[in-house]
Design a protein that fits this description.
Elements lengths: L20 E3 L10 E9 L4 E3 L3 E3 L4 E11 L2 E15 L6 E15 L4 H5 L12 E3 L1 H11 L35 H20 L6
Antiparallel strand pairs: 1-8, 2-5, 3-4, 4-6, 5-6, 6-7
Length: 205
């Protein structure tokens, strides 16, 4: 008795008005044809780690891409760039950092060997000859952001005692520390010294 396989759900259609969607129909599925694409895409929700470094909502992602038709699908390569803002992980000063990531992603044709032998979370698919770039670009950009951003590579951070930025402190800045085991002795010595000074050099027995 043969088993009846349930048909796969058809992917939702992609909206051409969405700036993340690219139409590849003019490539005609002819291997070797290519098309250059440049787009500036507004960021609707911040990308990154809040309070560390993010590409803020309202800013833009600049895409400079090449779409190339290959046997199994459309190969997208190029760069995505943006400006990230955050705080130095050592001194907490605000920072601004240019971020650029390289992109290389194959989008598989429906019915291709690649589509039939891989899961969608491994290789993305074309839907009606259209590509949705958003997941690919967002993942690449977020992974490219530093986990511990720095204002400069040699930033010394903050003094752990007073919390002032080391770069703003005088040379030789420090805080004298006394071993607590000796603290009572130091206090007693200071008290005795103070008494001797109060009595004066002319004190008679």
């Amino acid at each position: 008795m043969s088993e009846n396989k349930s048909p796969q759900a058809r992917p939702a259609q992609l909206d051409d008005r969405n700036p993340w969607v690219l139409d590849t129909r003019e490539l005609g599925r002819h291997a070797g044809l290519s098309k250059a694409v440049q787009r500036s895409i507004p960021v609707e929700s911040a990308l990154g780690v809040p309070d560390v470094i993010t590409i803020d909502a309202g800013s833009s992602l600049e895409l400079d891409l090449m779409l190339e038709s290959v046997v199994e699908g459309v190969l997208v390569s190029g760069t995505a760039s943006a400006v990230a803002t955050g705080h130095c992980s050592r001194c907490l000063d605000p920072i601004t950092e240019d971020v650029e990531v390289d992109l290389t992603e194959l989008f598989a044709y429906p019915g291709s060997a690649t589509e039939e032998t891989t899961d969608e979370d491994e290789i993305p698919r074309l839907v009606d000859d259209r590509i949705d770039l958003e997941p690919t670009v967002r993942d690449a950009v977020v992974l490219a952001l530093p986990l511990a951003p720095l204002c400069t590579e040699d930033c010394r951070g903050l003094c752990t005692e007073c919390g002032v930025k080391w770069a703003d402190l005088e040379p030789g800045h420090g805080h004298e520390k006394i071993d607590p085991r000796w603290a009572a002795l130091v206090d007693r010595f200071e008290d005795e010294t103070g008494d001797d000074q109060a009595d004066g050099p002319g004190k008679q027995a």
